[in-house]
Amino acid sequence: MDIRMLRGVGETRARTLAKMGIATLEDLLLHYPRGYIDLSAPCGILDAPLDRPCAVLATVIKKSGEIRTRGGLKMYKATVADDSGEMELTFFNTKYAVESLDYDAAYLFYGRVEGNLLRREMRAPQIFPPRADRPFFAVYPLTAGVSARTFSGLVEQALKLSPILPERIPADIRAEYRLEGIAGAVRAIHRPQNSDELETAKRRLIFEELFTLAAGVGLLRTRTRAAAAQPMEPHSLQPFYDALPFTLTGAQRRAIEELTADMRRSAPANRLVQGDVGSGKTMVAAAGAYFAFLSGAQSAMMAPTELLARQHYEGLSPLCGRLGMKVGLLVGSMTPAKKRAMHEALAAGEFDLCIGTHALLSQGVSFQNLALVITDEQHRFGVAQRAALGQKGRHAHTLVMSATPIPRTLALMIYGELDVSVIDELPPGRSPVLTYKISSGKRERAFGFIREHLDRGLQAYIVCPRVEAGEEDTGLRAATDYMLELSGGAFKGYTVGLLHGRMKAADKERTMAGFQDGTVQLLVSTTVVEVGVDVPNAVIMMVENAERFGLSQLHQLRGRVGRGKEQSYCILLSDSTSPETLDRLKTMCRTNDGFAIAEYDLRTRGPGNFLGQQQHGLPQLRIADLATDVEVVAEAQRAANRVLADDPALQKPKHAALRAAVERLMDSVGERPN
Ligand code: ADP
Ligand code: MG
């Protein structure tokens, strides 16, 4: 039913609503409130909390005329009272609120109470009748052009017309999980009569959203399983193991065996290797590429930064050389002529492994016989990019690697279509990095500590949040300026290098090469060193303005050290006094366990911030929260699997509504289920 059939919705308003994704009555009703004004238990004026909004039941005893402030604002005041005391209400630029109040009449005023024991005040409160006809008043996420009052009115009208809403949860699942029907749940989410009703409705709608997501991920899984891939021949990997300068850990061996077993099948491998920083994931990729090479096929490996691509290229070239494989590099900063030459060589199948960045996704790139597609630091790429590279090899196996330890509940939803190998073991001989939080008063001492290590032939990083100091003083360290300051001051006589994303590729390369071979002793950089950089001789990671970084990011940065035999240190410098920041940094000092850190991050910051919406390709959820709705996630997952077992492509008529919802959801992240 078109939204324009509602009273008060003309063309202009319809356009505004369309921008919010609302074109029909159904859309309107599926636009859930983001919260509620709780009118069920009003406070007295004196005992109202000062730190959060609440409802106060009081009687109007005085109204004032217009008052002009010095800033030219028009102000209107009223005084209200209850048994405990009096409170002043202030409204700006609108006289209607005060005019609408009757003397000696009681109202519910909703807002934040301010002031002290003697004088209480509420600015621009919302006004409700004293016995609100319902205890919870829905608050909607709105854009400019439609007021809260208008929107509530539209919802009211739509509820009266009760359009038929699609029931996406099959009846047997609803019965099993005790979920109410969609119509009742939607009514209650907009107009809850009491908190029980609200909770029941919420659970049902959260379940529906997660169930739809789980079904979508399940469909993707079916689709990838059903596609045909080129099975690799069962050659032995012994030559690979023999060519390594070290013995692989048990976890690495296991991941390699799982991957190569997948690759021998005619269904495409779709494997995620998840392992903390430094766990040696690259070797799994190398083994996979070698396995493809033994069958005469090629592999491509995509890294999120040029720095990392080059490092992989340089790191893997000697090993691959010993194995008779030819390795190529394709990155954005190469000259057009060089790129063209690479494109031709790739199409001709001259390289057995091609390492690169997004450049691998560009139009001109084709492979002769691409059998394995590897994505490193997968959380940096969206689902769509991952798929784009996959399409370069029509029947390619895929391997994705990630150091961002995704808590299990999230992993199920994000990577549900993938098989997972976990590398839960670090190469032997590593001692955990010791982490300390200091404030700037101790900076000089930290420098002394770093100098002692440089004198012993070791290396260090100092990471800053900015590239250059801007016009205004942000109090944030900038790598460019800091590098100059340090090389002429605290680190005079030492070789100090600079690295940031805005440098020319050739300059970056030169600095990295210098740091790699030890001529650069101290590297001042931005977070470009965050992912993957591997210099085992570097033992100290100092982070300036540590409060500016997410924990997972700090953990990644810390992962740059502790890669060799020497004891390594991470120094987090921050002058922040916020208890939350201090708690976060304390968590870093307490544990080296990436999973524990990720759980903490997820709990305190929510999944959106934790991963970044774009990066993991997860659709925007309306009502569910993957971080807190953990139990429902598991239930919805189980329910979706049951439905898919019975109807793998969701083609039965009874699943039509579910299928339509899944398609909408997947469309929003650029995936199409079959
Ligand atoms: P990440 O999992 O963070 O990508 P890398 O693959 O970069 O880790 O490996 C980190 C370092 O450990 C590299 O220098 C690599 O050569 C080394 N390494 C990998 N596996 C082993 C092993 N089994 N024994 C010793 N060193 C290893
Ligand atoms: Mg890596």
TrEMBL record:
Tell me which CDD domains the record gives: DEXHc_RecG (cd17992), RecG_wedge_OBF (cd04488)
SMART domains per the UniProt record, alphabetical: DEXDc (SM00487), HELICc (SM00490)
Reaction(s) catalysed (UniProt annotation) = ATP + H2O = ADP + phosphate + H(+); Couples ATP hydrolysis with the unwinding of duplex DNA by translocating in the 3'-5' direction
EC number(s) recorded for this UniProt protein:
5.6.2.4
- UniProt enzyme class: isomerase
For this UniProt record, give its keywords in alphabetical order, as a comma-separated list: ATP-binding, DNA damage, DNA recombination, DNA repair, DNA-binding, Helicase, Hydrolase, Isomerase, Nucleotide-binding
Which is a Pfam family this sequence falls into?
RecG_wedge
Annotated Helicase C-terminal domain residues = 442-603
> What SUPFAM superfamilies is this protein classified in?
Nucleic acid-binding proteins, P-loop containing nucleoside triphosphate hydrolases
Annotated Helicase ATP-binding domain ranges read 262-423
- As recorded in UniProt, coiled-coil segments are none
Q: What's a single GO BP term from this record?
A: DNA recombination
Q: Which InterPro entries match?
A: ATP-dep_DNA_helicase_RecG, DEAD/DEAH_box_helicase_dom, Helicase_ATP-bd, Helicase_C-like, NA-bd_OB-fold, P-loop_NTPase, RecG/Mfd, RecG_dom3_C
Tell me a Gene Ontology molecular-function term this record carries.
Answer: 3'-5' DNA helicase activity
Instruction: Give the source's domain of life in one word.
Output: Bacteria
Tell me which family the UniProt entry assigns to this protein: Belongs to the helicase family. RecG subfamily.
| Function as written in the Swiss-Prot or TrEMBL entry | Plays a critical role in recombination and DNA repair. Helps process Holliday junction intermediates to mature products by catalyzing branch migration. Has replication fork regression activity, unwinds stalled or blocked replication forks to make a HJ that can be resolved. Has a DNA unwinding activity characteristic of a DNA helicase with 3'-5' polarity.
Write the protein's name: ATP-dependent DNA helicase RecG
